[in-house]
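EI: anyone free to look at a 263-residue chain?
SC: sure, send it
EI:
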Amino acid sequence: MTVRERLLDISELNIGGILIQMRDVQFNEYVESLNSFVENLPAREKELKEYLAAKDYLSFSKHLVAIKDTLTDIHADELAEECLKQINNLNNTKHEKIEAFLTYFLSLAAMLSIDIQMAVYKEDEESVSQVVSGDEPGQKNILAVDDNAFFLDTLKQALKDTGYKLICVTSGLEALKYLQKREPDLFILDIEMPEMNGYELARKIKELGKKAPIIFLTGNATPQDVTKALQAGAADFIVKPVTPKYVIERVNRGLRSSPSAEC
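SC: here you go
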């Protein structure tokens, strides 16, 4: 897939009727705008959190307006609308609700940032060989690894009505033991884990010859973090804190790209 095609797959970007008509010069300028959003997001996230913690609502609002304008420029219309709603209601909103909004909004912005980085920097997918998987015909098995049992329960709740079989373990060693006998269709790996982090586990999974896509759980969307994850074998990301909608969307997308989807 080309960069244009991958960008068209990002649902948060309303560019279906725009991107196809862009000439190369315009397209390159648009990609520069996307890169600028990615590079500036971590600093803006830090500033927003600092202003909110200090209850400096004026500065908080000004920075939120700047982010809204950037989102509008890159055609992330729904996220821009979320910003605008908060800006318009800021004076009538309690501090706790603003905090909740910021957590929710930044997770969506981080997801968009990661999607953009994958679309722009990810190399074209290579074909992979088919593997045998699943305990039952047609059933999709997902191996989730996170040392936080509460978060694993969140994944279970998000996927409970999908028909997928979710296997949860709390360490890399447990995951490797499971892989001695089973071949999952998809991996969901937390990055920050003791003893063996997600990057190390992903590399061991690849060394074992496992072909299933890897989705990393992360709270960071910096280019450095995303590049490191891609080098470790990431096919996609789920940004914490999660919502059921985005978990299901990412898992469905990952399973569609799984080698066993062709079996």
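EI: Residues 141-262 form a domain with the Rossmann fold fold (CATH 3.40.50.2300).
SC: 👍
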